């Protein structure tokens, strides 16, 4: 299997892309460390993986808490080693022009989306550098490469994730550590549902969105998880500093 004997830590793994990634990694033989602020959801994901014959454990983790992040990663690395760190936890925000997004909302998004990924890299890198191997996969967005209107805080944060990933790749490469990002287009998760719920006619908005995609549909969490799995596994052993866009062709036309 593609992740046999590997230990994978995933943030925001109680739902959506993180949950799908946890399940795919477990299917490929990894010991999966499911982390999230949602204790109930995270525990349920870990339990379901175990019931299916996989190996998983849940650790409550708010990615904005750097001390707690380091403690969880240290505990995992000491017990099992640390092969893959997936910095997936993220948040969106209600749509609004840059002037309409207040300081509190801006800082909330930046804290989770930028500092949370920074904290994850910061916690994982010493272990990976010391062992001379490891793969970091950060979850960016189409907003890493496009400035989405009414999404200034989100776009700013996700662009930072991509460039942080490149810097980590440059710094950690000499130690045998790779860092990459996955940049999904709109994907059917509760984050998307939250966005659609703000629209006047959510179903019409969903159809309008899908119509803009060459494949005429939105992404599924499993499809993003498969891209993360590729970057986490040895199949991508010469890929580092890359932002893999998984958007059904949206950004190409
Ligand atoms: N769904 C999309 O259309 C889409 C598109 C591009 C990128 N993304 C990115 O994918 C990632 C996963 O999003 P999703 O769509 O699966 O959303 P989701 O809402 O289904 O999952 C996000 C998870 O992150 C957790 N979380 C939120 N704040 C946290 C924190 N401070 N610490 C730890 N966990 C926290 C939530 O509890 C939740 O389980 C995010 O980084 C998001 O920006 C999503």
UniProtKB/TrEMBL annotation:
It comes from the Archaea. InterPro entries: KR_dom, NAD(P)-bd_dom_sf, Sc_DH/Rdtase_CS, SDR_DHRS6-like, SDR_fam. Keywords: Oxidoreductase. The keyword Oxidoreductase applies. One of its GO terms (molecular function) is oxidoreductase activity. PROSITE patterns: ADH_SHORT (PS00061). Residues 6-189 form the Ketoreductase domain. Belongs to the short-chain dehydrogenases/reductases (SDR) family. This is Dehydrogenase. It comes from Natrinema ejinorense.
